[in-house]
């Protein structure tokens, strides 16, 4: 019998603090009592817990919505535990069916390799690379072979697999389900066996896969991992989850000025959720800020703190300060210090053609739409005439709040 299953370790203040850190912003911790005992055992024995996050490199870039789970990993890392950043180079060949109403097309090994390198480089902006174990699940998945895969598949039933919501919906509506899709949760669960994981993190859409890890660890005679699901971050609109396809995202490789301005664009209500999920400030500090706003402090001032923290994380404190200055200047109608210089010929030139050629608008028709919306300025003056032709000269042209160019027209 595993002695850790029967030994009861004392729950100290340090353990209670670690539990509070774990639960901050989380959706669900299962089972909580088991996690408390793992934390207590770790403190008593001095042995760090093994905390796993698996990411399939299905796209080359990540946005700050993806960093919600990375932030949690960093918080647990800062408590002294061993963080494992698992790159699903093998599982990407299958394709995660979570939340899908159709079979996900598999990636090529070349795409996976390229994306994986980018993923880790970007994740290292949140995690401490010196204290992060990088693993690829092809290490143990490929050696399994056909025999090992069959033996693994024997440890779970089709009936249990069909309880999974997305499989059930697809089956009842006549949508095809490929047999290889059943292998995905099995392989993700087997990762936990191979890594002897104590805790696995994931989005709320990963709950079935995370529970599979617990099941398979028990099948293989290991102490089962606990699971921690994190919510999906709402994007800039405050409604839909952050997504590139919905254009409500902040890419973690975006320039500092854009990143700062995008954070400043979120609502005062959404700001507090972002503080909880994205900030490294303590909950006590965030509560103090909420009290100050309730007492009359301008929420915009507090949002600046969030924008600077996020921008500094992915750039530098100096870049965050400069981005704040740039934002203030633009909000007052000023011109940023560094803007693109564009040389154009053909004076006199229509404003629509000028915006397109200066790459301030994708097309002349879009330029006209921007003019109709009052979003175009020349030397600080709003342009309302789509028929405006500019003679030879130098102009500061602005589109919206963030696009500028110094255009010299000959």
From TrEMBL:
Entry-linked SMART domains: S4
GO cellular component, one term: cytosol
One BP term from GO: tyrosyl-tRNA aminoacylation
EC number from the UniProt entry: 6.1.1.1
Record's catalysed reaction(s): tRNA(Tyr) + L-tyrosine + ATP = L-tyrosyl-tRNA(Tyr) + AMP + diphosphate + H(+)
Gene Ontology molecular function: any one: tyrosine-tRNA ligase activity
Alphabetized InterPro entries for the sequence: aa-tRNA-synth_I_CS, aa-tRNA-synth_Ic, Rossmann-like_a/b/a_fold, S4_RNA-bd, S4_RNA-bd_sf, Tyr-tRNA-ligase, Tyr-tRNA-ligase_bac-type, Tyr-tRNA-ligase_bac_2
Protein keywords: Aminoacyl-tRNA synthetase, ATP-binding, Cytoplasm, Ligase, Nucleotide-binding, Protein biosynthesis, RNA-binding
Location(s), subcellular: Cytoplasm
Positions with a binding annotation for ATP: 244
UniProt xrefs under CDD domains: S4 (cd00165), TyrRS_core (cd00805)
First-level EC class: ligase
UniProt domain RNA-binding S4: residue ranges: 349-410
Subunit field text: Homodimer.
HAMAP family xref list: Tyr_tRNA_synth_type2 (MF_02007)
Similarity remark: Belongs to the class-I aminoacyl-tRNA synthetase family. TyrS type 2 subfamily.
Function as written in the Swiss-Prot or TrEMBL entry: Catalyzes the attachment of tyrosine to tRNA(Tyr) in a two-step reaction: tyrosine is first activated by ATP to form Tyr-AMP and then transferred to the acceptor end of tRNA(Tyr).
Protein name: Tyrosine--tRNA ligase
Species of provenance: Extensimonas vulgaris
